[in-house]
């Protein structure tokens, strides 16, 4: 069974040092232009990892991702209006 995972966006000042964030979880993406890291970690130890990451000198801000709370099951109660506009 897969453990519950949660995502975090970590804003950093140094991308080279941000590579060491892999010890806290799985680094999914690193933006070189905007200086942030998207990472996933186990939800049961996420609070402790966030406290440890917040102490690092190159971490500016940590935001939790709400992606797992977004509804992904859709219903077809409404009519499809795109068919009326097609040629």
TrEMBL record:
UniProt KW keywords: Cytoplasm
Protein's organism: Paenibacillus harenae
Protein name: Uncharacterized protein YlbG (UPF0298 family)
Lineage: Bacteria, Bacillati, Bacillota, Bacilli, Bacillales
Pfam families given in the database record: DUF2129
């Amino acid at each position: 069974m897969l453990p519950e995972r949660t995502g975090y966006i970590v804003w950093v000042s140094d991308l080279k040092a941000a590579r060491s964030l892999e010890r806290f979880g799985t680094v999914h993406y690193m933006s070189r232009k905007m200086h942030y890291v998207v990472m996933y970690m186990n939800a049961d130890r996420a609070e402790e990892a966030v406290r440890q990451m917040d102490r690092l000198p190159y971490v500016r801000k940590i935001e939790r991702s709400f992606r797992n709370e977004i509804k992904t099951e859709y219903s077809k109660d409404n009519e499809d209006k795109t068919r009326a506009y097609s040629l």
